[in-house]
Design goal:
The protein has two domains: about 120 residues, Rossmann fold (3-Layer(aba) Sandwich), CATH 3.40.50; about 160 residues, Dihydrodipicolinate Reductase, domain 2 (2-Layer Sandwich). The protein has twelve helices and 13 strands. The chain has a seven-stranded mixed β-sheet. Helix 7 packs parallel to helix 12 and helix 8 runs parallel beside helix 10. The protein is globular. The chain starts with a strand and ends in a 16-residue tail after the last helix.
Length: about 350
Amino acid sequence: MIKVGIIGSTGYAGQEIVRLLLNHPETEIVWYGSQSYVDKRYSNVFPNMFKLVDDKCLGDDFPKLCEEADVIFTATPQGLCSNLVSDDLLNKAKVIDLSADFRIKNVERYEEWYALKHGNPALLDEAVYGLCEINREDIKNARLIANPGCFPTCSVLSIYPLVKEKMIDPSTIIIDAKSGTSGAGRGAKLPNLFCEVNESIKAYGVTSHRHTPEIEDQLSYAYGSEVMINFTPHLVPMNRGILVTAYANLTGDYSYSELREVYEKYYKDEYFIRLLDENVCPETRFVEGSNFVDINFKVDKRTKRVVMMGAIDNLVKGAAGQAVQNMNIMFGLPENMGLKIVPMFP
């Protein structure tokens, strides 16, 4: 059994890791970490865990946890993991970090976008960006995984094949994304109160959202040179889900079937990526509670552009599910172990 510790287990993503691992046949959770609920029974924090989890919440004693766990998930705010992890501790336990601390390789770029001093730049080169369908081979031997953000996961997977094959002009990419309110975390925030979001939709982080450099970095690696995009997220009044609609100029007179062949080339054997039938657009309700990514696209012959679409559950494939998928790869387990979850409907 893989012994698992979770720092930040009482946030939305942390609780989702717990939910998934309770159904994982090869794991045992040995540490429910929480700064806010130390010594409080986990099922009192999350009543859905009543009679499922009897443990009490522990603190974030990272060195002690590394003695007890084989792998540690850090579902914490930016800045904490980089100040906890060290080379010595990584020799004792693998770490899968759900924050942004190790996603951006350029430390100055990270500090500019996150307005934080990085706690351990020496580990940036070693950290593997855990977008499983693209970086699988590097993940296998990693000690430290930078679990991707929710918007970057959906955006990059929706766009990646056409960028990689240079079938779109990356300088023309515009990404419009919609997210449910759980993407902002569990902390009490005035803009996320029910009365503030219900019956409304709004753009936020316009030209300044922190996931922008992460998306640009990953598309730049795929394209082979620097890519700069426009990315605008929107908050919609639903609990879960991300819908990405991305636009770009085509570099040739490609048909739908020609572009479809490229998507099939990269994704036909990927369990968690579902390429939808032609003319079927992704919807968040059909991936809710699952680790699936639904993808499709439309060719606009009139404007010589392509519209690329993707939908995920932001807490599963956009966070906890992808983290468990990374763990499975790191420990040589079937990639979909514990993650064969049928999307909830309605």
